[in-house]
Structures are given as structure tokens and as C-alpha cells.
UniProtKB/TrEMBL annotation:
It comes from the Bacteria. Residues 29-66 form the DUF6788 domain. Pfam families: DUF6788, NTP_transf_8. This is Nucleotidyltransferase-like protein. It comes from Rhabdonatronobacter sediminivivens. Residues 106-310 form the Nucleotidyltransferase-like domain.
Length: 335
């Protein structure tokens, strides 16, 4: 298939916007950056005093980039207003370059979730809301047929990470959803609700988590919500990346790596085919689009993600093969 791309100027503007949003996250440090080691992984927290209590707010897992920002956090705090102005300018450039924006309802909800810490605390956008953000990461132009428009939001997180962080959103995610007129959708078996539907407009927010056994409902401690556990999701959300939502002066969120998203779509398309052919076709369309682009731009990332999935057992191999049997052009790219 033919891949159309944004200009180099637009691609550079997007990544500048993303860098400034990451700088903003670190400039919020109020106290002393504190290093914590848990299960061999290193996490950083902002430790500050409130009255006689010492509180810790999670900053992020240690990376060279995060360490560099922590070293500059006082400098970054002094540049908040200048960054806000520059972010607004970059968003105007991206809109002029015909980047996809978000409608006010979706953009404001994502902004509210980012403000209370959903994405900082491990929440990862999945589904179509994530797919549309690869436009900036990969510099791709979407056509109308490439993108199913939806106001639904799917957020996934690891249950163990959510518990290990020992931090929570403030205010709660439930309060944010209530402010936007979302109500929990009751489950037939009286398990905790993991889906929330908006009373006006009918938009849906779903919380998901990887299943390492049965696909039941699990708590996400950091987000203060319950989530539906699903197989294969651990592959999708491992090692996520940051992305910028074009709403107001930009919103920082977290999404899966594009190569993992593409291969995961091959798997879920096979699972959905029997019960929802429309969604299965959407999965195949998104997989084809991303795999075609990644085969040109990031062939080794795509190869490694494909081999990783195939190496996870016969069921993974079977589901991927089932979908590729309907997509010989994509099978050829992966071969």
C-alpha cells in the first residue's frame, strides 16, 4: 500500500512538542528527587513535606533522559511560561500541517486524566486513540478510511506495577469520570465495573490489564479502578512510549510501541473474527497500515516484535497465521 508522509518540518515540530511536554512533567518537582529500587528496577519520586508528613509522588522509571531532566528540574521550573508559549506555537504549526486534532470532549477528558496522573502512573492508551497518535511518532498522514472515528478511550496498565508504585491519582479517576458525566456500567456477574459510559453522547471508557491466568477483573491500585484482564495485553503494553495529543497546548500521554501495536492487531483480529467481523476488519486495516510503514522506516524493530510474538507459543503463532492468511501482502512484508 502507498504510505503518505508529513513534511520533515511537521515531524520535527511534533517531536519538539513531545520534548517540551516531558520537560514540563519534571518541572513539577516540588521537593527532593528520591531514588527507589524495587525488584531490580529503579524508580524516581518527588519527596516533599506537607505539615509533619513526608509525601512521595512518582516521577518515572529511571532512564538516561529522565536523569538529565531531574538534574535540570530547577531550571525547567523557571521556564514554564516560555515552554507553554512555545508549545502553543508548535500546536498551531501542526494544525496548519493538517495533523489530526482531538475533539473537545475527548481532548478535555484525556487532559483531565493526564493532570491527575493516569499516564504518569502507568496508564497506557490502547485501541484507536493510540493508533491515531502514531501519526506524530512516525510522521504519517492518515486518510479517512485509515481511521475509524471514535470517542471511546481504552486505558491499560499492569496490575503489579500499579501496586508497586505506591502512589495514586489525585483526585481519583472515578471523580474525573463523574465530572465528565460517566457512570459505571454494571456487570452481569456483579463483578466490579471496569467500563464507564457517558450519559450524554454515549462515549465509553474501558480499563484493561494483562491476564496471567483467567481473564477476570483485577484492581489497578494506582488508578483506583478495576480492569478487565486480557491475554496478549502484556505483550502490547511492555516498554510503552510517550506521545503528544494535539489539544490546547498539548497533552502528554503514553501509548504502546508501534511495532507491538501492529503485531498485536494481528492476534486480536483472529480472536474477534467469529464474534465481531467489523472490528476484526478494522484490526487488520490498522495492522496493514503500520506494518507497511514500519517495514520501510523501522524494519528491525518490526522484525524483533514479530519474532517475540511468535516465540510466545503455539496459540500466538496460530492466531497470527490465521490473520496473515487473509493478508498475503502483509505476510510477505513480515517474511
Amino acid at each position: 500500500m502507498t504510505i503518505t508522509r508529513h513534511s520533515p518540518t511537521a515531524h520535527a515540530a511534533y517531536h519538539d512538542l513531545l520534548r517540551l511536554l516531558l520537560d514540563d512533567r519534571t518541572s513539577d518537582i516540588r521537593g527532593t528527587p528520591t531514588r527507589v529500587v524495587r525488584n531490580g528496577r529503579v524508580y524516581w519520586y518527588d519527596s516533599f513535606r506537607v505539615g509533619t508528613d513526608v509525601r512521595k509522588t512518582y516521577i518515572g522509571e529511571e532512564t538516561p533522559e529522565l536523569l538529565a531532566r531531574i538534574d535540570r528540574h530547577r531550571e525547567l521550573r523557571a521556564e514554564v511560561e516560555a515552554r507553554a508559549s512555545e508549545r502553543a506555537r508548535l500546536v498551531r504549526i501542526l494544525r496548519a500541517e493538517r495533523f489530526l486534532g482531538h475533539d473537545a470532549a475527548t481532548g478535555s477528558l484525556l487532559a483531565a486524566m493526564a493532570t491527575v496522573g493516569v499516564f504518569r502512573l502507568g496508564g497506557t492508551l490502547v485501541g484507536t486513540q493510540a493508533f491515531r497518535l502514531y501519526e506524530g511518532e512516525l510522521g504519517l498522514r492518515y486518510r479517512f478510511d485509515d481511521l475509524a472515528q471514535t470517542g471511546d478511550i481504552d486505558i491499560a496498565s499492569f496490575e503489579r506495577l500499579s501496586l508497586a508504585l505506591e502512589d495514586r491519582t489525585e483526585p481519583t479517576v472515578e471523580q474525573v469520570l463523574a465530572d465528565f458525566a460517566f457512570d459505571p456500567v454494571p456487570t452481569l456477574d456483579r463483578r466490579p465495573a471496569w467500563r464507564w459510559r457517558q450519559s450524554k453522547g454515549g462515549a465509553l471508557v474501558e480499563f484493561l490489564t494483562p491476564a496471567f491466568g483467567d481473564e477476570g477483573v483485577r484492581p489497578l491500585a494506582a488508578l483506583g479502578v478495576s480492569a478487565q484482564a486480557l491475554h496478549h495485553l502484556n505483550y502490547l503494553i511492555a516498554g510503552p512510549i510517550q506521545a503528544a495529543v494535539l489539544y490546547r497546548s498539548g497533552v502528554l500521554v503514553q501509548i504502546p510501541r508501534p511495532e507491538r501495536f501492529a503485531i498485536h492487531k494481528l492476534i486480536v483480529a483472529a480472536r474477534r473474527e467469529a464474534r465481531d467481523r467489523i472490528k476484526a476488519e478494522k484490526d487488520r486495516r490498522q495492522a496493514r497500515f503500520l506494518i507497511s510503514a514500519l517495514a520501510e522506516d523501522r524494519p528491525y524493530d518490526l522484525r524483533d516484535a514479530y519474532r517475540d510474538a511468535l516465540g510466545r507459543g503455539p496459540k500466538w503463532q496460530e492466531r497470527i497465521a490465521t490473520t496473515l492468511g487473509q493478508m498475503p501482502d502483509v505476510a510477505e512484508l513480515l517474511a
